[in-house]
Automatic annotation (TrEMBL), chains A, B:
<dbReference type="InterPro" id="IPR001647">
    <property type="entry name" value="HTH_TetR"/>
</dbReference>
<dbReference type="GO" id="GO:0000976">
    <property type="term" value="F:transcription cis-regulatory region binding"/>
</dbReference>
<feature type="DNA-binding region" description="H-T-H motif">
    <location>
        <begin position="43"/>
        <end position="62"/>
    </location>
</feature>
<keyword id="KW-0805">Transcription regulation</keyword>
<dbReference type="Pfam" id="PF02909">
    <property type="entry name" value="TetR_C_1"/>
</dbReference>
<protein>
    <submittedName>
        <fullName>TetR family transcriptional regulator</fullName>
    </submittedName>
</protein>
<dbReference type="InterPro" id="IPR050109">
    <property type="entry name" value="HTH-type_TetR-like_transc_reg"/>
</dbReference>
<keyword id="KW-0238">DNA-binding</keyword>
<feature type="region of interest" description="Disordered">
    <location>
        <begin position="1"/>
        <end position="21"/>
    </location>
</feature>
<feature type="domain" description="HTH tetR-type">
    <location>
        <begin position="20"/>
        <end position="80"/>
    </location>
</feature>
<keyword id="KW-0804">Transcription</keyword>
<dbReference type="GO" id="GO:0045892">
    <property type="term" value="P:negative regulation of DNA-templated transcription"/>
</dbReference>
<dbReference type="Pfam" id="PF00440">
    <property type="entry name" value="TetR_N"/>
</dbReference>
<dbReference type="InterPro" id="IPR036271">
    <property type="entry name" value="Tet_transcr_reg_TetR-rel_C_sf"/>
</dbReference>
<dbReference type="GO" id="GO:0003700">
    <property type="term" value="F:DNA-binding transcription factor activity"/>
</dbReference>
<dbReference type="InterPro" id="IPR009057">
    <property type="entry name" value="Homeodomain-like_sf"/>
</dbReference>
<dbReference type="InterPro" id="IPR004111">
    <property type="entry name" value="Repressor_TetR_C"/>
</dbReference>
Amino acid sequence: MCQDGAVATRTQRSPRRTEALSRERIVEAAVELLDTTGESGLTFRVLTERLATGPGAIYHHVANKGELLTVATDEIVAAALAVEPLASSPQDRIRAVALGLFDAIDAHPWVATQLSDSGWQATTPRILESIGRQVGALGVPEDDWFITTTVLMQYILGAAAQNAANARHVGPDANRAELLGAMAAEWAELDPGDYPFTRAVVGQMRDHDDREQFLAGIDLVLAGITALHLTGRQAAVHREP
Amino acid sequence: MCQDGAVATRTQRSPRRTEALSRERIVEAAVELLDTTGESGLTFRVLTERLATGPGAIYHHVANKGELLTVATDEIVAAALAVEPLASSPQDRIRAVALGLFDAIDAHPWVATQLSDSGWQATTPRILESIGRQVGALGVPEDDWFITTTVLMQYILGAAAQNAANARHVGPDANRAELLGAMAAEWAELDPGDYPFTRAVVGQMRDHDDREQFLAGIDLVLAGITALHLTGRQAAVHREP
DNA sequence: ACCTGAACACCGTTCAAGT
DNA sequence: ACCTGAACACCGTTCAAGT
C-alpha cells in the first residue's frame, strides 16, 4: 500500500528440524500466517500443520486464539516502538513514533483490527508511554498530558486502521492507483444533490499519498496542541454559550 | 418491532410468525441481536430461529453475513447523521455531528469494528459528507478540504472505536467506575522505570469522562484547523530540515 | 511435562426439493 | 418467486491416551 515496509523481518528460518515447540515459535508462525494470508488465514488447522503437531500441543502453550492474537499484536507494536527516535525536537520525535506505528500497521494490517478492539488494555500503555514522553518534552502542562496524548494516539490508530482497511480490501498484490481510481469512480457516481462535498473532493482523494496525508494530520494535531496547551490562554476555538 | 397494532383480524398463537420475510425485517433482527448479544451473538442459527425460517430464506434476501453487517452499520450511521444540527457556528455543528456519531457507536459498539474495517468504502462517504460541509462552512480553503475532513473523521472513528472497545470488554451491565478502577490498578503496577509517563497519568485516566474527553479532542483538532488552514500563513508547527 | 489426534459443538453457506 | 431444512466443509476447543 504505502512504500517499502522495511520492518525488521526475521531472517533465520530453521528448515524441517523438529525444533521444540515453544510459545515463541507458535507466535512467530501465527504472525507469518497473518501477514501472508490475512486474518481469516490464521487457523489452528493450518497452524497445526505448519508446526507439525496437533492442536492440543498448541493449547499447551497458548490459552486460546484470542491470546495468540493479542501476543502477536503486542510483539509487532513493541518492535515498532523499539526504535528510539533521534530527532532533536519533540515534534519530530512524535512524527517519527507516529510514522513507525503507521508503517508497522501498514505492513501488518491485522494489527489495526486487534488494536481497535483492545481499548485501554494490552498494548495501549506501550503506545501511550512512547507518545506521552514526547508530549511531556513538548512542554505541555501535566494536567493536560492525558487528553493530549490520548488524542494523538486515537488519531494515529484511527488513521492507521483506515489505511490498513483499504490495503486489506485489495490484497497485498493489488495496485494502489487502481484502488483509488475505482473508489474515486464510485464517489463520482453519488447523487450530486446528496453528496456535493464528497464529489468536490474526489480528485483530492484520488491523488492523495497515504503517508503524506497521515503526516499532515499529525501536524494538524500538533498545531492544535500548540494552540490549546502551549500558550498562556485558551485561544482560537470558543464555543457558543 | 412488536406488532401490537392489528389484533382481531387474525388469531396468531405463535408469537411473531406470519409477517412476510423481508430485507428490512432481517436487518432489524440482526441489529437487535448485535445490540443485545454482541458481535458473536449474531448467528444464522439464532437469526433463523428468531425469524422462524430456514437459513435459505435469509440468503434469498441477503448475500451473506458480511452484507448483513454492512447494511446494519450503514443504517445506524445514517440514523445518527440524519439529525440536522441546529447550532449556528460551523464549529458547534461539527461538535454536534461528532457527538452524534460517538453516541451512536457507544450505543452500538459493533459498529466501530465494522467501520474500522471498511476503509473508504460503504458508509464512509456519508460521514465525510456530513463533516465536510461544515468544514467548508468554516472557511477552510477548498484545497485543504480533503485532509481537514479526513483528519476529523479519523479522529472521531478512532476515539469512538477505543471507547466502544472499552464498553465491549465489560458488557452493557457493568459499572464504568469499576472498569476504570481496574485498569488504573493495572497501570499502577507497571514497571516505574519503563512506564513513568503512563503511571503519571493514571489518575487522569481513572477520573476522565469519555464524552468530555472526546469533545476536548474535537476542540483540539478544530484548533489545529484554525491554526493551519484558517490563517494566511503556515504557522505554529515547523519541521526540521 | 509435553504431545497426539480423534471427537465435539458450532459456524456460514449451499441446494435439491417443495409451495 | 419465495421458502424449507438437511447436508457440507470448516472452525475453535477439549480430552483420554500416549511418551
